[in-house]
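TICKET: design request
STATUS: open
ATTACHED STRUCTURE:
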């Protein structure tokens, strides 16, 4: 485990020279994204941050942005409205960012929830949580890769379940879990987690200049468990009354999560570039210390999950990637 002392020492080194000067937070309107933005702004560095979120969150996010500007007047935080579950809107938002910015240093992706409840699709025919946790995230990466390529230490962080993949976790014959009776919240969350890792590993091997992190944040009391269900269903009742209190009891403190996510977004522990790190270097999914995909848990340990990843690489990666490019093609 990387100790809290080491995390704070590393984050204390974030300044104008080492900070991600331009970052895009998709999901920064709540939860872990919001906590991480506050921690980044509190470093005092001169940073520009795009917070991408849906219209219904605009008012409270604008209040949050005012708080951030008071915390650090050198931080420029820009509200960017986008219905991020819709791929057409992801494309529109990315085009707008590309028109304004020559480079992006950090893309931080947290939108989503475990879809405990009935399957609900977006207007584009994708299960909502799959769009938020997978397709929309990968589309943001693909669109912003040219800008990430202009940064000195570019990084993509996808917060979901890095390290928790299982060997049989991708149903390659039903990647979108559309077959009758093949959808459940648990199955979906396991599948979307493994799809994140396989696709991010593909992107990491195609773009060795960019550091990719798929993290598992542990338990953070953000209300995420209450998000998805039909509030009147049994599943919702169980989650609200059983899982909710357990998460609240065992969750890490908000600031601990914020500092750990900031560390994962900036430290050279992952791939060698970023805030200097003299501790044990992290290893990627190929069990090497060089750039690649880092599966990182809430202790900030790299957990390459090597046996499972090699099975996924062999049996799922190509199918998932081909399918993904087929779904995203119209929005590229
Ligand atoms: N918190 C945990 O303990 C935990 C543990 C393991 C994994 N995770 C996963 O890690 C990720 C981040 O978790 P978190 O706790 O930060 O989540 P969160 O606080 O619930 O926030 C997730 C983000 O998703 C957005 N979102 C949710 N539903 C949406 C929809 N239908 N359309 C557009 N945006 C939507 C939210 O936007 P609004 O602000 O507009 O609602 C928010 O910005 C999630 O994928 C979560 O499943 C969390």
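STATUS: resolved
RESOLUTION: sequence designed for all positions
ATTACHED SEQUENCE:
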């Amino acid at each position: 485990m990387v100790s809290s002392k080491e995390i704070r020492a590393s984050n204390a080194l974030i300044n104008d020279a080492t900070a991600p000067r331009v970052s895009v937070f998709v999901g920064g309107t709540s939860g872990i994204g919001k906590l991480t933005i506050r921690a980044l702004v509190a470093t005092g560095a001169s940073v520009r941050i795009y917070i991408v979120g849906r219209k219904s969150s605009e008012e409270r996010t604008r209040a949050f942005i005012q708080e951030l500007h008071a915390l650090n007047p050198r931080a420029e935080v820009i509200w960017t409205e986008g219905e991020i579950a819709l791929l057409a809107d992801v494309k529109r938002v990315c085009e707008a960012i590309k028109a304004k910015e020559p480079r992006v240093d950090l893309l931080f992706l947290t939108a989503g929830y475990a879809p405990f409840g009935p399957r609900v699709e977006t207007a584009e025919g994708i299960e909502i949580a799959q769009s938020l946790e997978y397709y929309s995230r990968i589309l943001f990466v693909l669109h912003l890769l040219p800008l990430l390529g202009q940064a000195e230490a570019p990084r993509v962080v996808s917060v979901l379940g890095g390290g928790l993949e299982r060997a049989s976790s991708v149903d390659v014959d039903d990647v979108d879990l559309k077959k009758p009776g093949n959808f459940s919240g648990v199955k979906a969350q396991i599948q979307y987690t493994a799809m994140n890792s396989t696709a991010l590993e593909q992107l990491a091997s195609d773009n060795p200049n960019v550091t990719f992190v798929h993290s598992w944040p542990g338990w953070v009391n953000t209300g995420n468990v209450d998000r998805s269900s039909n509030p009147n269903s049994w599943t919702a009742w169980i989650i609200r009354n059983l899982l909710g209190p357990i998460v609240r009891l065992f969750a890490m403190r908000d600031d601990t999560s914020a500092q750990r996510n900031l560390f994962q977004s900036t430290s050279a522990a992952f791939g060698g570039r970023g805030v200097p790190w003299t501790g044990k270097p992290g290893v990627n999914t190929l069990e090497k210390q060089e750039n690649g995909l880092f599966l990182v848990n809430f202790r900030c340990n790299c957990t390459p999950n090597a046996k499972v990843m090699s099975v996924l690489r062999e049996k799922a990666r190509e199918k998932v990637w081909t399918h993904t490019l087929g779904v995203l093609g119209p929005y590229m």
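CLOSING REMARK: The chain has one domain: 4-326. The chain has a mean pLDDT of 96.
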